[in-house]
Amino acid sequence: MSDEVQKDEAFPVQQLGRDLRREDFTVERVRRLADAVAARGGVPFMSDEARRASLKAIRESVPAGEDAWVFGYGSLMWNPAINVADSRKAHVRGYHRTFCLTLGVGRGTPEKPGLMLGIDRGGSCTGVAHRISADQVESELSILWLREMMSGAYEPRWVNADVDGHRRTRVLTFVINRSHPRYEGALPEVEVARRIALAEGMLGTNREYLYRTVKHLAELGIEDGPLRGLERQVREFANELDATGD
Length: 246
Description:
By secondary structure, the protein is an alpha+beta fold. Helices cover 35% and strands 26% of the residues.
C-alpha cells in the first residue's frame, strides 16, 4: 500500500530517516505533490473533488455509532499512521498481494522506478485489520484518504475478512485500480526483483519496504511463500550491486 512522497522543493533530497506519521498527511502536502508531478509530466493525481466524493461515499456507508475496520497488506500493516483501537491478523479471500504498481516517488525515481504492493483479484491474502473507534471514523478515514487516495491507483472497497477473535467482519481495503496508468499487472518475477533491488527514494530503498513487509508477516506467524522467494532474489541482486558498486 502507498507511502508515496515526491522529491520537490517541499521535500529535501536526502532520505527522510523515519516512517511517515499521521501529521505528514495533509491536504497541502497532496496539492504540492500533485503540482510537482504535473510539472514533471507524470500521471495526474485525483482532483480534490473526486477524492472528497470518494471519501464521502465510504463514510456514509459506515453506520452511525459503529466502528470501522481497515485491512492492511503492506506498510499499512506495520505503520498505519492513524489512530486505531485494535489490530488483529485477518484473512481476505478473492484477492492476492502483489507488487503491481510502478513507483517513481518515495521509494523510487523516474529513472529507477520501484514497485508498490496492491491486492489484485484472485487467490487470498493475510494481513492486519485495524479497528477505528466510532468516534474517530471521520477523522481517521480523512487521514487515510490523504495517504492512499492521492493518485487514484487504488479503489476503496468493502470486503469480508476472517479477523482473529471475531466473526466474519466487513473491512475496508484498497484494491489495485487495473485501469490506472501505473498498474503493471503480473510482471516476471526476475524483473520485479531487479526493480525492487535498484529503486531508492526519499523514503528509503524499495527493498526495505519488501523486507519489512516479510518481517512483519513472519512476526504474525504468516508465511507468504511468494514474498519470501522474492525477498531471496532481491537480496541476491542487492549483494551483486554492493559487490560491483553500481
